Amino acid sequence: MSIAPKPTSALLIVGHGSTENPDSSTPYFDHADEIRSRGLFAEVHCCFWKEEPSMREAIYMIDSDEIYVVPDFISEGYFTQDVIPRELQLTGPTTVVRGKTFHYCLPVGVHRSMTDLILRRAKEVAAGIDPASTTLIITGHGTGLNQNSTKAIRDQADLIAASGAGYAAVLDAYMEEPPFIAEWDKMSDTPNVVVVPFFISDGLHSYQDIPVLLGMEDEVGAAASQREVFRHNPHHLRGKTLYYTSAIGTERLLADVILDQISDFDKIHKSL
After folding, report:
1. Does residue 134 share a domain with residue 246?
2. What is the C-alpha to C-alpha distance for residues 148 and 104, in angstroms, rounded to an integer?
3. Are 76 and 106 in contact (CB under 8 A)?
4. Number of domains making up the chain
5. Which structural domain range is residue 265 located in?
């Protein structure tokens, strides 16, 4: 979808970033470029927790007096509820900071339109494969500071199972808590299995850790920009045919989900 132009407002996309993985920030800049190309905002910027520019620098990068902040995160939790509000000095849905009005939207991963992106990614990677003979597994990290990340993935699995997409089963699985993605073959009764990583970027987890857990590789390899793990589908492992996609956040159309969250914010918090 698109939204009405906001020629006097800015968009600030907030990402996690990484000091270890050179590919971590790429999707965020891709999403910003896509939205910038549509001419909807006076400015479109990115900032990060673990990379430059930092969140605390963001206010100095923006000229506009009205700023929509969208967390380019998979779920609600520690970063979206604690870190980002603290770093940007946000106290609610709308906050005035140093004369600028910030509107704080929900993270992209909890929006209902993420379901369509997952289905799109699954169909692309296993084109021509009958969903009735396929198990779709959405995988994430699990544990850590944010238990809501597992809820976001479970919600997507439930939505897809009820969507009529036709998959024999739609499951959630995790790196560090049960059900474990390493046991993907045991939890799948079908000959075909599609695994979609529910992450924003092809970082250490989706590109390096999960391929080992799936049995695609024997040891953790190099970063995403240096390898072609996603171009070797399908993988014939453990008596099944496995299709492994890149992280859902690398889908350029995630830019539309960012705009969806802004549209929803305006409907809920601003008088029309």
Report:
1. yes
2. 18
3. yes
4. 2
5. 6-109+251-270
Q: Are 270 and 11 a contacting pair, CB within 8 Å?
A: no
Cα–Cα dist 31/107, whole Å: 14
Angle between helices 254-269 and 114-125 (to 10 degrees): 170
Side by side, the strands of the sheet bearing 240-244 are 169-174, 134-140, 192-197, 240-244, 235-237
Answer yes or no: is 189 within a domain. yes
Same domain, 122 and 74: no
Residue 263 buriedness (CB in 10 A; 0-12 / 13-18 / 19+): middle
Taking only Cα atoms into account, the Rg of the chain, rounded to an integer number of angstroms, comes to 19
Give the DSSP letter string of 89-106.
T--SSEEEETTEEEEEPP
Q: What pTM was estimated for this model as a whole? A: 0.87
Q: Answer yes or no: is 78 within a domain.
A: yes
Give domain status of residue 1, yes or no: no
The tens digit of pLDDT for each residue in 119-172 reads 999 999 999 999 999 999 999 888 765 567 788 899 999 999 999 999 999 999
Q: Are 46 and 167 members of one domain?
A: no
